[in-house]
Amino acid sequence: MAGITDRGKVDRMGRTASSASAIGIAILLGAAVSGCTPSPPTPSDAPTAQGQPTTSSPETATPTPIASPASPGRHYFDNDVTMLNETPIDGGPIAYADGTTQVNGDGIPISYTVGEGDVFEFVAKRFDLGTAYLWSINAVRRDGKGLYIGDVINLDPTTVTSVGNENGVAYSHLDRLSDPHLPQK
Q: 16 near 8, Cβ under 8 Å?
């Protein structure tokens, strides 16, 4: 039913030009908004080691994304399993895990001292350990409130009850000791 109204011409569907414009604008807005999704968390969104305030300016350079040459295309946290015993392999300092390592007489890393800006998941990556595994061998002596500069992260499953601290405190959560567990030193 085509005809003319006081607002303007009517199309074959019975819509006026102004309603067609409103529909067009709504479609364009919907298309623009539909592409808006939250971005995935980045290392800068993750909690980092806390310590004394620095005197650097508030503007800091954005860290360069890091690649894993040993496992190209593999996500950083794919190795996230809990096992009874994993042997850490120190891949050397990486972004968000550049603290210091203590080794035993055989050169195997046994503990790690947290540096400024370290992130727990990247410490696990540095030693090719799953984050769940690393947490499991540190849960007894840590409270889980964060990383602090100088914290000692245990890397040896035989020293779960004797190595590690959080913000200078060595907790004793023996109820978190996994069962079975290796004999403790």
A: yes
The domain limits of the chain are 4-33, 79-185
Q: Which helix (H) or strand (E) holds 131?
A: helix 131-136
Q: Which residues of 45-74 are buried (b: 16+ CB within 10 A; e: fewer)?
A: eeebbbbeeeeeeeeeeeeeeeeeeeeeee
Quote the mean pLDDT of the chain.
73
Report in angstroms the alpha-carbon separations of 160 from 16, 32, 126, 146, 165: 75, 53, 19, 18, 11
How many other CB atoms are there within 10 angstroms of residue 153's CB atom?
A: 28
Residue 112, φ and ψ in degrees, nearest 5 = -135, 135
Beta bridge partners of 127: none
Place of tokens 């195997």: 108
Measured distance CA(115)–CA(152) in Å, rounded: 10
Span 137-169, pLDDT tens digits: 999 899 888 899 999 999 998 888 888 888 889
Query: Which of the pair, 166 or 45, is modelled with greater confidence?
Result: 166
What is the CA 126 to chain-centroid distance, rounded?
13
Q: pLDDT tens digit string along 1-41?
A: 555 544 555 555 555 556 556 666 767 666 555 555 555 55
